[in-house]
Amino acid sequence: MIFVGIEATENQEINKKIVDLCRKNGKIVIGVSNCDFINKEDSNCVQILNFYKNSNDIENGIDKYLHTTEELLKKFNYIENAEELVIDNPNKIAENINNINILEVKSHYPIIKDSDKIITKKCYEKAYEIYGKDLPDKVKERLDLELNSIIKNNFESIYLINSDLVKKSNELGYEVGFRGCVGNSFVAYLLKITNYNPIDYNLPFEIFAGINYDKEPYIDLNFSIKIKYKIFEYLQEKFGKDKIIWAGTIETLTDRTAEDTIKDFCQTFEINQDKLYKNKDDFINNISGIKRSTGEQPQAVFIIPKDLDINDFSPTEADLQGDKKTHFDYHSLWMSGYRLYKFDILEHDDSTMLHELQKITNINSNTIDLNDKETLDLFLHANEKSLNNSTKGISEFGSEFACNILEIVKPRNFNDLVCISALSHGTNTWKYNAESLIKNEGIKVDKVISNRADVFNFLLEKGIDKETAFQITEFIRKGKLARGRSQWKNISDKYKKVNEQWAKYRKIMEENNIPEWYINSAEKIRYLFPKSHAIGYTMNAFKIAWYKVHYPDAFYKAYFKIKSDLNIKRYYCKRQVLTELTRLYDKKEIQENNKDFIYNTDKNCKIEDLEILLEMYNRGIAQDKEEIIKEE
User: Fold this and answer.
1) Cα 347 to Cα 249: distance, rounded to the nearest angstrom
2) d(C-alpha 119, C-alpha 150), whole Å
3) SS3 annotation, 394-460
4) DSSP 8-state code for residue 84
5) Do the Cβ atoms of 116 and 158 come closer than 8 Å?
6) Is-contact 391 379, C-beta < 8 A?
7) Which residues have C-beta within 8 Å of that of residue 51, sequence separation ≥ 6?
8) Whole-Å CA distances, 401 to 348, 489, 602
9) Are 294 and 327 in contact (CB under 8 A)?
10) Is 348 helix (H, G, I), strand (E, B) or coil?
11) C-alpha–C-alpha distance, residues 359 and 567, integer Å
12) Rounded-to-integer distance, Cα 238 and Cα 110, Å
């Protein structure tokens, strides 16, 4: 159905002519508000927004609200039989519109022909390579469980594409890290998406796939920044340039910006704020969240299925590189009923560091023994200054917070380091929780609550059935009780529900002889980190630490080339480093004792870099400054 819409303008003769032509030619014409906002009383918000945009006319568009029928009839009173435009014709159009879905309401994954056969073949071939043709029952059961659920839910292409991305990165000479729970998948390991066997680490698939094994796989991969765009180009070559779309974002006005703009507006026009609005919070809410500009999530892409086009989901626009990105915010495409799958191409320094260290030493990091005693000793004695070596410069374990945990825990093995990593990333897991249990109760770090997988396995060991164990683990890892008590204490129904649910779980745990200290610890947690994520990060950290222990020249060279912005050419001797550190320490102390003192937080990074440079000199290592040149 074709129709013409006209807006009530000052030039009434033009509108009369349009209506006359439409009526003579049998075309439907309607009178419209051409509205930009709903409520007439929100016109003052339009003025604020015009002011924010530095418009010459702050009243521009204040009448573009959704007009009532009576208001439109009045505006079109110069048209003969205005009811036809305002009432009759809009109803005709509405009567001819049916409920339609342009797309089928489902997840739209990339299509790979025979993906079920390909993934099964690849996984079994790798499993036979590891275990031999006669697979142990435990291995076969796990493999079949995962493959069946993946194929049943059409997740094969997600695994296969991520496997290809890792392979491409490896061909370019860079390892790939990962985040989240994908390390719990045996299939992911067999496809070389991850680099350790979850069966060896007792990582349950349920933590990744859900208790019903139907949770969409969320695979976050960490690539070196040096090759990130090459990975994007590889996807374009494989699937077609028009099928690879960067995830767009929409930048909106924040509450703070809205409040500041209102204040400036009132000061500029000498308006009393109380006369501008009845309720300040409601007024701010009307303005905040409005679009300012479009942007880009620089680490996420959509792969459009062969039989569809991105314009089926969203209009597009070009980014700064000329590549396509979604005009709509990516969350609306990723989390809606018509969902596209978001592939994450993340960045991490560890991949670049390991590449550089392997290049300098000619030693493959995959051959490093994760039980190497000298490297473990570095973590065990991280705070002993007499050793002239530390975990500074080691991801996950170089911060003051991590070093304090290392000093208290005194890690005995690689698994202890994994637990420390998980504790440092959780919320309310360490301070006033695991820290007290380890220091005061003598409980070992691998027994306290540090990660999801260990909680789930512990509950199963105690005899709790799998589904209930999973529900309790999810309740704890989301921090439902701790968050509920702080966020919903004034909302009686929600507060009551959370407490009732926890009372039920607490009773089950008590009946299965879960220690009281363990239950009390669980009650405090607001977020619990995945063990697989901690293993991945700890593996990379341990490898880099191994180079620092056994090949210190290579470590410092790689560190100052890859991870530091410090111009080490300025520091020719130990005395210069000490002088600069003393100056920065003094400034930092002033900041900590005086909140009004402005201190550049970037100086903290400089302090760490100088401490590592001082450590290098204390170990008797002098780098050739000319060799440490930043790559463009």
Assistant:
1) 19
2) 10
3) CCCCCCHHHHHHHHHHCCCCHHHHHHHHHHHHCECCHHHHHHHHHHHHCCCCCCCCCEHHHHHHHHH
4) I
5) no
6) yes
7) 58, 261, 264, 265, 268
8) 21, 31, 18
9) yes
10) coil
11) 23
12) 12
Question: What is the spatial order of strands in the sheet that 220-223 belongs to?
Answer: 177-179, 220-223, 342-347, 291-303, 244-252, 324-326, 316-318
Task: Give the CA angle between residues 221, 223, 226 to the nearest 5°.
Answer: 165
Tokens of 69: 């029928």
Cβ-defined contacts of 86-90 (< 8 Å, 24+): 86/30, 86/31, 89/3, 89/28, 89/29, 89/30, 90/30
Q: Lowest-confidence range among 202-211, 243-252, 327-336, 618-627? A: 618-627
Q: What is the pLDDT of residue 2?
A: 83
DSSP helix, strand, coil percent of the chain (3-state; round to 5):
55, 10, 35
Do 343 and 246 form a contact (C-beta atoms < 8 A)? no
Beta-carbon contacts of residue 521 (< 8 Å; ≥ 6 apart): 433, 434, 437, 448, 449
Task: Quote the CA–CA distance of 359 and 554 in Å, as a whole number.
Answer: 9
pLDDT digits (tens, 9 = 90+) for 486-529: 665 555 677 788 889 999 999 999 999 999 999 999 999 999 99
CA atoms within 13 A on the CB side of 280: 10
Which residue reads 């070389």 in tokens?
192
Determine the residue type at 506.
R
Decide if 303 contacts 334 (C-beta within 8 A).
Answer: no
The tokens of 370 are what?
Answer: 């994760």
Query: Is residue 217 pLDDT above 50, yes or no?
Result: yes
Strands 316-318 and 324-326, by their bridges, are: antiparallel
Compute the distance between CA of residue 609 and CA of residue 566 in angstroms, rounded to an integer: 7
- Let me know how long the chain is: 632
Give the range among 71-80, 387-396, 499-508, 565-574 with minimum mean pLDDT: 565-574
Strand 3-7 relative to strand 28-32, pairing:
parallel
Q: What is the pLDDT of residues 453-474, one digit of tens each?
A: 999 999 999 999 999 999 999 9
The widest CA-to-CA distance across the chain, in whole angstroms, is 97
According to DSSP H, which parts of 462-573 are helical?
466-477, 480-487, 492-511, 516-524, 531-550, 552-562
Asked if residue 571 lies in contact with residue 622, where contact means CB atoms within 8 angstroms, the answer is no
Retrieve residue 630's tokens: 């930043």
